[in-house]
Amino acid sequence: MDLTGQVAVVTGASRGIGEVVARTLASAGATCCLASRNEAAAKTVVQAIEEEGGRAIAVACDIADGDQVEAMVARCTAELGRLDILLNNAGITRDGLAIRLKPEDWQAVLDVNLTGTWFCSQAAFKVMLKQRSGRIINISSIVGAIGNVGQANYAATKAAIIGLTKTLAREGAPRGVTVNAIAPGFIDTAMTQALPEKVREELKGHIPLGRLGTPMDVAHAVLFLASSGASYITGQVIHVNGGMLMP
Ligand SMILES: NC(=O)c1ccc[n+]([C@@H]2O[C@H](COP(=O)([O-])OP(=O)(O)OC[C@H]3O[C@@H](n4cnc5c(N)ncnc54)[C@H](OP(=O)(O)O)[C@@H]3O)[C@@H](O)[C@H]2O)c1
User: Which residue from 11, 36, 227, 247 has the fewest beta carbons nearer than 10 Å?
Assistant: First the structure.
């Protein structure tokens, strides 16, 4: 899967799934623009990509802030010349049972996971529609499909991302822009390492393939959706969950 000459924006690339996806896209030849709030951490990933022979830049960006997103995409196109792939990966959790969930925790998760994904999609869409090509890949979650106790805010955003994906897919199709979502199951990153070990062990019992996923399991799906082989796929949700949900 050769992405030579292509430019990819990866949000939340400073660690976890985003870092591994960025390194994977870069190793396939894409030049990557790594966007996250922690610029120093993103720069460490840039260094790793350069050591592996790839090219990347780090841009400090809080995706919940529309002006910062516009500036990040403008810097990407100014410095790297174009924008072919957007991975909307940055996301947060602020868990709590529905009856106790604080308004600020509801709002923070909506602001980053949903509005942030929207800001990045809109900014990239403008560039991609004009150049009549592009790939937007949104990271949803299994939780957006089946819900999860204590994650009303997070599940609502991840379900909404699926509706956003399908709408943008319809709007982008006439101009050669495809938009798809990936719904990971439980992936071994800082986000799930925050769960108690007992819960992580219990989770494995619900996964037919018997293990948590790795960021690389998600990166393979992203790489495929970004590749020329996926040019006839749009508006779809690819589930990467070890068989935990078979919709
Ligand atoms: N891990 C799982 O089991 C799992 C399952 C399903 C879906 N997902 C989804 O996959 C995505 C990545 O998850 P992960 O497990 O890799 O999470 P993670 O390890 O917590 O990493 C989250 C990334 O998002 C960035 N980020 C957070 N808020 C941001 C903001 N406002 N603006 C810009 N960047 C921001 C973080 O960087 P900074 O802190 O530097 O900003 C970090 O790079 C998320 O959308 C998550 O919901 C994860």
Answer: 247
- Tell me, using a 6 A CB cutoff, whether residue 157 lines ligand 1: no
Return per-residue pLDDT of the chain as tens, 247 residues: 899 999 999 999 999 999 999 999 999 999 999 999 999 999 999 999 999 999 999 999 999 999 999 999 999 999 999 999 999 999 999 999 999 999 999 999 999 999 999 999 999 999 999 999 999 999 999 999 999 999 999 999 999 999 999 999 999 999 999 999 999 999 999 888 988 899 889 999 999 999 999 999 999 999 999 999 999 999 999 999 999 999 8
Q: Which of 191, 222, 245 to mutate to test the pocket of ligand 1 (most atoms within 8 A of CB)?
A: 191
**Two tokens, residue 247:** 């919709």
Alpha helices (H) in the chain, listed in sequence order:
16-27, 39-51, 66-80, 103-109, 117-131, 142-146, 152-172, 190-193, 197-204, 215-226
| Residue 232 is among the residues annotated as catalytic for this protein | no
Q: Is the CB of 134 under 6 A from ligand 1?
A: no
Nearest CA to ligand 1 atom 36: 12
CA 118 – CA 76 distance, rounded (Å): 18
